[in-house]
User: Fold this.
Amino acid sequence: PNASTARQVGIDGVEAPVMHACGHDTHITALVATARRLAALKDHWRGTVVFVVQPGEERVAGAKAMLADGLYTRFPKPAYALAFHVDSERATGTVSASEGIQYSSSDSVDITVPGVGAHGASPHMGKDPVYMASQLVIALQGVISRERQPLDPGVITVGSFHAGLKHNIISDVAKLQVTVRANDEATRAKLIDGIRQVARGVGVMNGMPEDKMPVVTVTEGTPTTINDAALARRLNATMARTLGADKVAVFRQKGMGAEDFAYFVQPDLGVKGYYFSVGGTPQAAIDAARNGGPPVPSHHSPLFKIAPEPAIVTGAVAMTAAVLDLLPVGGPVS
Assistant:
């Protein structure tokens, strides 16, 4: 009954169905709740709080654009930057934050594989880009298994493969969309370089001329999100006092999600960052899934759902507590 019927035209000009499949609507609601709570508690803190409603998170482009537009020059530059994301794999009422890396880097890579069109019954008369792109999809995993240092996390996932229009026509182009994840800048660069090398190798192997080699373009990306260690220890303790020690889980990186919040806290900016996750699924649902019941849907799944009220309340309470800790009455103005 709650299925979305909304559609929108994306930045690429393509109209597609859309839904809240990641929880950003709860983030905005919690931000408003935090602002209201801090306004009600204005005698309990001293300083300036800037609320940032950042667009473009899914394309990891909004934070960088806001900085370029003067976020830290047109408005008060903060001493601290705080953010959270709801987590469908975590129980409602709980939070978790790392004292180091919180999220991986992310790069979106487009690969165009040119071919030579021909009749499907005469493949020798052309160069099949579907065949070449298929080789490339498989070969990219060799970058992960044979080029990357085994103990350095990394992911290369082909999320989109488009080519051709008809059963019996060999297309003249195939297009891949790839996401690349890493936990350090050296691995990040190595994976991108590896994609370029593999793409060229596929072109050479198939006898493509220089002007028809696969083209690799990095369209957008973000570095790793790393929490300030001292700040994380301080605010994790605040969370434990506020929510209860049993509600603050030890952070374990289970996947390679990314956040462009990283741009707000790059070392050269001098802004200390704290990013935490907030549980979004009732413990009973998590327990049921572990016992063979319905699995908990992941983020970006069409089945994604969270329990909104406890997620919003926990996020707002946690964020309010963090601000009260960092901006106490009688403390320095920041």
User: Anything to note?
Assistant: The two ends are 46 Å apart (CA to CA). The helical segments are 24-40, 62-68, 71-74, 129-147, 185-205, 229-243, 283-290, 308-326. The mean pLDDT is 95. The first strand starts at residue 7 and ends at 9.
